[in-house]
Amino acid sequence: MKFKFDCGLIARSLIALVFVLAGFSKLKLLMSSSADLYSSMPVPESVQMIVALLVIFIEIPLAIAYAVGFKYVKAGWALIGFTVLATVLVHVKIYTDLPMESVQGKFLQMNMILKNIAIVGGILATIGCYCGKCLTCSVKEHKGDHNHHNA
Questions:
Q1: Which of 24, 55, 76, 88 is a Cys-bridge partner for 127, taking CB atoms 3.0 to 4.6 Å apart?
Q2: Which positions ≥6 away from 3 have C-beta within 8 Å?
């Protein structure tokens, strides 16, 4: 009996790990000092705590559902939306608001933006095949034809 890696499960789990760890880090920060956590978001200060809690309690369950394959296509699209919003509303805003002298800060935000773009690409790669075989089959099984699920 040959052992076969489930590349889809591995890929989804590694991507989800980023969201789960980020969610728990945000929760820890929120419990210690929520004042600075969402100060960069374009929302009124009065609703920053609510936004923080929503982000945390959406991010972690979605990532877990995506990782284990529970409605992973819908969870993947939701994570893509979440990631694009976070990139535009937080990281791009911080990047553009930083003064030109803040090279280290700009470098950090650019890395966060590029990381998020890579995450979106990884999610798209894992949800692109609805049959679930593309990431687990061998190249010989497909013979280069990845349109088998459209039939």
A1: 76
A2: none
